[in-house]
Amino acid sequence: MSFLRSLADRDRVFDFLVPTASPVDVRHGPILYLEDVTVSFDGFKAIDNLNLTIDDGELRCIIGPNGAGKTTMMDIITGKTRPDTGSVWFGSRHDLLTMNEPEIASLGIGRKFQKPTVFEALSVFENLELAMAADKRILPTLTARMSGEVRDRIEEGLDTIGLTALRDRPAGILSHGQKQWLEIGMLLMQRPRLLLVDEPVAGMTEQEMERTAELLTGLAGKQSVVVVEHDMGFVRSIARQVTVLHQGSVLAEGTMDQVASDPRVIEVYLGAEADEEMA
Ligand SMILES: Nc1ncnc2c1ncn2[C@@H]1O[C@H](COP(=O)(O)OP(=O)(O)OP(=O)(O)O)[C@@H](O)[C@H]1O
């Protein structure tokens, strides 16, 4: 009886309603580890002996020409595509190649696709609320009884993505950039350990790009963030470590200055980008 009464108390926080931190073990190494990963489509190697290590809390930018394998790499990490060979580990405990997409997502790997997919008719707050309810670790039938802690998490998310003032407005009225931030906020509701972000600034204004740079650099440290992006100005503004993919494997890795001055990178990618910009 007292349990039923406590269920009716909206301000009571139930431990089982609040997602627990992902059990990923990073004590002995990186948060993400890909070794000798290869995947072929009809005999064509889209990923070819790829090795990649992402440290816990790191912000990594992945660049590379069209067809380099960036999207396929993300698909492999999230379980959408199975590699032919190689290993993919999340921390030292989770072999991602033995898990399906929902299992990988529930471990704390969130993916932001290029196109924002927010619920336009719902308010900004409701979008975040729904994203939290989608968390399988929260008992779905009880999400209507929002605890104070859950509400605090949404408020915190609103603050992080800079949309507090627009919390009660329908998401449909947001600018393209604001929709992108809302979707990042929706991912954050699931408390990810690793965020994979695909071309976050495509179609954004300069000002929105600056705000996105602040947002992503602010997230790093709290979670690991992998950003795939073609806009070199943006990459330069956020980059610590940059990985250059080419023909499915790592061509170069280092600081932006190091990779930008690498003759191989200039030849296959940055040279072409510069030509495009000048055209
Ligand atoms: N399902 C598939 N079937 C056949 N070929 C595929 C498939 N997915 C990807 N490819 C091919 O694999 C290669 C790598 O593609 P991918 O989309 O991963 O590159 P990318 O680096 O993300 O490119 P972009 O910058 O254009 O998004 C490309 O040549 C692509 O045509």
From TrEMBL:
Pfam families membership: ABC_tran (PF00005), BCA_ABC_TP_C (PF12399)
InterPro entries on file: AAA+_ATPase, ABC_AA/LPS_Transport, ABC_transporter-like_ATP-bd, ABC_transptr_urea_ATP-bd_UrtD, BCA_ABC_TP_C, P-loop_NTPase
UniProt cross-references to SUPFAM superfamilies, sorted A to Z: P-loop containing nucleoside triphosphate hydrolases
Keyword Nucleotide-binding: yes
Coiled-coil region list: none
Record domain ABC transporter: where: 32-272
Keywords attached to this entry: ATP-binding, Nucleotide-binding, Transport
A molecular function GO annotation: ATP binding
Highest taxon in the source lineage: Bacteria
Ranges that cross the membrane: none
CDD domains documented for this protein: ABC_Mj1267_LivG_branched
PANTHER family cross-referenced by the UniProt entry: CONSERVED COMPONENT OF ABC TRANSPORTER FOR NATURAL AMINO ACIDS-RELATED (PTHR45772), HIGH-AFFINITY BRANCHED-CHAIN AMINO ACID TRANSPORT ATP-BINDING PROTEIN (PTHR45772:SF8)
NCBIfam families attached to this UniProt entry: urea_trans_UrtD (TIGR03411)
Record's protein name: Urea ABC transporter ATP-binding protein UrtD
